[in-house]
């Protein structure tokens, strides 16, 4: 077994791929500061702004909200005379998020990460499927899934199952060419995917806020490679043990302030202008501009911007960017607890109609645990990653989500909702079929204009928060290299699968 493990490690390049080889003989800091506008203060914008500010650039970070963080943002709200905080939603920090975790370490925020125990899918009436104890070696972990009923003997002898081998063959060019035009739904039907395997894949597809019939099979193969088949960390991950503002964002703000960056809160940028010398943003001149807003707002920003007429093929990539369908996040402060003490903080469900996951905040977050102790009730966050077409009104979505919560945890029947915060949004990027080819890249092709976010096209294997952080850092690296400075080192999991 040890020899096999060594061979797999070797084949997968020790589970790491180096994105660049910085020339350390080049200067580290800029001598005559250049001005950079960063639009959007999510992880991507924070990443670009911090990397540039540290090197002496004159950075202005524009954020439309009153707080930084975007999809990991947190804010205060009042309810029944109490002041509470809520967040955009639960987030898992996987161990192979190398660049984001290096950043947390640099900020000193990594001490707030705590491990989650198990990756669990909940079926009705407290039936559950955990994945703890799975062999952690890529390839062998997939075979181990057999023990959990994810596939069976028939899967091996069924010739229709041969395409499953493509899961182990991730390769940017070939995988996208072959599978970006096919949806997960069609792949699952064509290969007669066993029911439990479908559930596991569905939970992957749902992490990208897509219905199976929309989700690109190429993106799903990439995600399976990134999260499961390219490292020994498996599906286990860490979470921040308190509100994101205290455990992450405030560290970024301190870092930016220390390096003299200007943070513009409550400042939505509706247009920018490309000029001879650079850019006009918010009435100021900049040498460089990095667009790090979400897809929905980026599309509008480019549509309204001036001076981009000479680059129609670039602007059309931005204006055809697609956002996902609607999703909902509902946090509930209640007077009851779940019965099963052994559940991890975050649980996927096999979804009746709309409830995809339940997070037990009273078990996970310090501030939530204090409220829970004082008020003798649990705090649950319910996610629906793709709101069904017939659920339009907030009240109908809530009713359906609550019905399903009680289906999975019948012991909560009769619960009283003491406080609640409901979000119904559609600002997640679409990873749907045939989207890859036209995705904008970090280096847009317009001099001085860069893009960053979990939606940009990159040739490294990162996704979601890690993609957001890495893209911001890569945008900064491009600017360093234009200014003759050394780049920051970045890495990812291997870009090719075990059998590629
Ligand atoms: C409910 C939920 C759960 C998730 N769970 C996970 C998870 O467990 N693990 C994981 O890795 N990822 C998860 N994600 C995905 C993750 O949150 C994102 O991939 C990541 O945070 C995206 O960062 P970003 O900077 O690219 O974009 P965003 O966070 O969307 O940031 C964009 C920023 O731009 C700002 N902005 C927009 N327009 C303008 C404008 N015109 N002017 C100025 N500012 C503007 C926005 O306010 C926002 O702050 C989850 C997402 C959601 C919604």
Descriptive report:
The chain has 16 helices and 22 strands. With 500 residues, the protein is of the alpha+beta class. The strands form six sheets. It has a seven-stranded mixed β-sheet with strand order 9-8-17-18-19-16-20. Helix 2 (43-54) runs parallel beside helix 16 and helix 6 runs antiparallel to helix 9. It is globular and about 65 Å long. It binds flavin-adenine dinucleotide. The site of flavin-adenine dinucleotide has 33 residues, from helix 2, helix 11 and helix 16.
Distance between the termini: 22 Å
CATH architecture of the largest domain: 3-Layer(bba) Sandwich
Instruction: Give the helix level as a range of percent.
Output: 25-40%
> What's the multimeric state?
single chain
CATH top level class name of the largest domain: Alpha Beta
Q: Going by CATH, what is the homologous superfamily of the largest domain?
A: FAD/NAD(P)-binding domain
The side-by-side strand order for the widest beta sheet comes to 9-8-17-18-19-16-20
- What is the typical, i.e. mean, pLDDT? 93
Number of domains: 3
């Amino acid at each position: 077994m040890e020899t096999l493990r060594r061979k797999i490690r070797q084949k997968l390049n020790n589970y790491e791929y180096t994105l660049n080889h910085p020339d350390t003989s080049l200067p580290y800091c800029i001598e005559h500061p250049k001005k950079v506008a960063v639009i959007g203060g999510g992880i991507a914008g924070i990443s670009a702004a911090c990397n540039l500010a540290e090197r002496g650039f004159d950075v202005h970070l524009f954020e439309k909200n009153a707080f930084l963080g975007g999809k990991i943002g947190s804010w205060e709200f009042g309810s029944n005379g109490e002041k509470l905080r809520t967040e955009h939603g639960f987030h898992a920090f996987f161990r192979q998020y190398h660049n984001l975790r290096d950043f947390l370490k640099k900020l000193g925020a990594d001490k707030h990460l705590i491990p989650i125990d198990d990756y669990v899918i909940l079926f009705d009436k407290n039936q559950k499927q955990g994945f703890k104890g799975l062999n952690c070696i890529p390839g062998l972990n997939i075979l181990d899934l057999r023990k959990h009923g994810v596939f069976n003997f028939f899967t091996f002898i069924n010739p229709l199952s041969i395409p499953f081998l493509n899961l182990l063959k991730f390769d940017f060019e070939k995988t996208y060419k072959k599978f970006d035009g096919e949806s997960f739904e069609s792949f699952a039907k064509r290969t007669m995917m066993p029911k439990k395997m479908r559930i596991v894949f569905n939970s992957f597809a749902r992490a990208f806020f897509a219905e199976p019939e929309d989700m690109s099979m190429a993106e799903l193969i990439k995600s399976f490679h990134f999260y499961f088949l390219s490292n020994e960390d498996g599906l286990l991950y860490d979470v921040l043990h308190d509100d994101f503002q205290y455990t992450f964002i405030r560290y970024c703000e301190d870092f930016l302030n220390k390096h003299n960056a200007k943070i513009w809160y409550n400042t939505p940028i509706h247009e920018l202008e490309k000029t001879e010398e650079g850019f006009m943003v918010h009435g100021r001149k900049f040498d460089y501009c990095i667009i790090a807003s979400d897809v929905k707002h980026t599309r509008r920003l480019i549509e309204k911007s001036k001076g981009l007429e000479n680059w129609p093929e670039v602007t059309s990539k931005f204006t055809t960017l697609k956002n996902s369908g609607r999703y909902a996040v509902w946090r509930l402060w209640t007077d009851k607890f779940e019965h099963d003490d052994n559940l991890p903080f975050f649980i996927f469900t096999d979804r009746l109609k709309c409830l995809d996951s339940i997070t037990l905040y009273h078990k996970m977050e310090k501030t939530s645990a204090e409220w829970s102790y004082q008020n003798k009730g649990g705090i649950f966050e319910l996610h629906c990653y793709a709101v069904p077409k017939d659920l339009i009104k907030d009240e109908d979505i809530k009713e359906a989500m609550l019905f399903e919560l009680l289906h999975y945890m019948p012991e909560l029947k009769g619960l009283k909702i003491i406080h609640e915060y409901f979000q119904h949004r559609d600002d997640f990027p679409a990873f749907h079929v045939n989207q890859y080819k036209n995705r904008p890249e970090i280096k847009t092709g317009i001099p001085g204009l860069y893009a960053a976010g979990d939606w940009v096209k990159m040739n490294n294997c990162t996704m979601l928060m890690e993609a957001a952080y890495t893209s911001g850092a890569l945008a900064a690296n491009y600017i360093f290299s234009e200014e003759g400075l050394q780049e920051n080192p970045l890495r990812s999991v291997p870009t090719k699968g075990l059998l590629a």
